[in-house]
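For concreteness, we quote verbatim a single protein encoded this way:
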Amino acid sequence: MLAPWFDYTINGLVVGNIYALLAVGLALIFGVANLINFAQGSIFTVGAFVGWTCVTRLHTPLPVTLLVVALFCAALGMAIERVGLRPLQGSSRIAPLLATIGISLVLDQLVQLIFSPDPRDLPSQLPDWRIPLGGGSIGALDLLIAGVGMASAAVLYVFLRFTRLGWAVRATAQDAEAAQQMGVDVHRVNMAVFAIAGALGGVGGVLIGMYYNDIDPAMSFQATLKGVVALLIGGVANIPGAIAGSLLLGLIESYGIALFGTSYRNLFAFLMLIVILLFRPNGLFSRGGSLPPEPLTGTFIARSRPVRVPRWLLSLLVGVAALAPLTHSPYLLQTLSNALLYALLALSLTLVAGTSGVVSLGHAALLAIGGYASALLAIDLGLPVPVCVLLAGCITAALGTALVSPAFRLQGHYVAIATLAIGEIVSLVILNWTGLTRGPMGLTGIPPLGFFGIPLDSVEAVYWLSLALVVIVALLQTRLLSGHLGRAWRAIREDEIAARAYGVNPARYKAMAFAFGGFGAGISGAVTAHLYSYINHETFDATISLLALTIVILGGLGNVLGAILGSVALIGLPELFRAAAEYRMLIYGVVLLLLIRFRPQGLLGTV
């Protein structure tokens, strides 16, 4: 009976050692740059595929493979710091955070273009023997991963304690301005830290690929989340805490799999993250140091001015929208309908992030709630589709606000990470609640759109419906923003402490923003479900949340018209130019990086 649990313990410690390579890199970067690097998981993926190339194509010995991966990913880390992040020094904290997301999108897409989206086997170069121990067994690869983890920790300790560059890193982490005044080259320190983090992440990617004999171009997102969870469990900028948090996370996941099954692996990690954020945001093993408490968006948008759109241009846009069906092009109308449904999500996010200042990285969860709510009401209760869609909007507004409400007590990076975790929790609940959601099988036979018995089975009808919903939600949102609610939301965004001093209850108004935004997003998810007639837990994945954030920044945070135009530009144009369809995510990442660098206020400015 003890043998399986011994094996689960060994598995948890081994995987925890790999998480530690990610978390230690994140801790180092946060220590000197006050930044959660969301590109760390992409470096992890790049390292895995560089290792695969060395093993399967170049047939290099294992030590050479690990050395090549470490050097390549160290150079990649330095390039990210020098080209992607250093130009943003002096910007608000959201700018480099979003830049790392854009870099992650670019790197992930490049990996897919170079190696194809298909998973690949990464065979271990070690002998396949196991040592019996305590009723279980330990393999050669287990010992290698444990050795790499301990050796990395020892080398890093020596580096930080006994080398001049290590002293400079520690001084910069304590006070960057004071270190610079004492002659420390902060840029050199940042580059060194990104190189170390890149090398650790790349080696971690190779080891995890060999451990599971599988690598996937899409694994970077989950790798980043696991590193962030381990980092926050241990305490930001706390290297021993990051290692301890990683081992604890690995054990919790392994024991969770033993008790409940593989599909629950990630659920435990994200639930633990939410608990840590709510009750001990500084981490279990940290006595000090935390994420910056100030709002992420305030200085990012304070200097921007909205662009006044002439009435004649608005009239022209309305005319173009009205004349689009006259083209009799089903593909064009289907593309525009898809863009308009994304516009509903963007309107929701621009209200939450742009106006009230709550950066949500898990907004696609609202689409999932709306889609499943409407589909289940139609399938299980047989309600008319229009009633289902409206009820789905209300359910999403209520449930989405309730899920996010614990995060209202948090600020800054904590809110963004919490919303990201909540989005993943929603997806995992949908996957595992088979009695309600049908689990991985998804929902089939969802009734099509229709009103009063008249089916909307033409692309023209779907287009008019999507356009009408966008116009209604946009007008309602414009009305809200021009009144007392809009002023209160903007006050919270600019300075939450000052807003509270003037009698504004931040939690109450944030809840209102999520409720109004959730209604529009729920409607979008519901309409999408009835259009597809089939949805599952992967229909509304995390990439949609990042895409929505890119759309909002493109149009201008808090700008209603900007959210609509940004959706049409970012969703519609790549579809119309089919040659660019394969490069869509690459385009989104590059657009996000260029906007952050040169036009953070968006095309139409912020409101």
The longest strand covers residues 130-133.
